[in-house]
Amino acid sequence: MGVAVATVTVRGQAYGDVEPDRVRLQVGVQAEAATAAEAFALLGPRSAAVDRALGEAGDLVLLRRAGAVRVHQLWSPSGTAAGYAARRSVGVEARAGGPLGALLSALVAVPGTAVDGTEWVVDPGNPAHSRLRSAAVGDGRTRATDYAAAAGLRLGALESITEPGLAGPPGVFAEAVPMAAQMAEDGGGGGGPVLELRPEPVPVSASVDIRYALLAGPAAGG
Q1: Mean pLDDT score of the chain, rounded to an integer?
Q2: Domains and CATH numbers, the chain
Q3: What is the top-level taxon of the source organism (predicted)?
């Protein structure tokens, strides 16, 4: 095998665009009125309609988190009081491959409701992560082999392999890309414009720090 005369530490990396598993939606419903009590009362039926639309979506909706109702005063451009607004936000997670356009259309059909933000998510268990980790290890070995050859040495045994940034929070593998809902003409010939939300590939990466022993003498055939 030979005796190690040095070590080389490299960072292997791999990148890929992955089809998303889920989409996160931030849905806001708001009601405005002359008084705070009136705005709060008007918000109730609208909020219930949003909940019904989410419930009727069935297993398309994977998760929903309802926030507290907040009431704040409205002001005119001149700085005078212009009534009150009551607002409730709902965080929703849905399957990326489902009928998202129908869900969005049902939500925004509720008066005072808007989709404030969306992001595509690749789940931690997606097989793409395993493929990229393997590719990152291969990239690291290639780099180490190149450095060994450049130094007139041979690549020895693998001594350590770690992921960078392990001191940070776990589970940062689900990457997301913000995206806005788009308006598209209905091809069915009768409904006018409908909301569409088309899944887009999410950039995902893997990195690994690897240390190899280096042995005296060039590699065979080098």
Answers
A1: 86
A2: 4-19+125-216 (3.30.110.170), 22-121 (3.30.70.2970)
A3: Bacteria
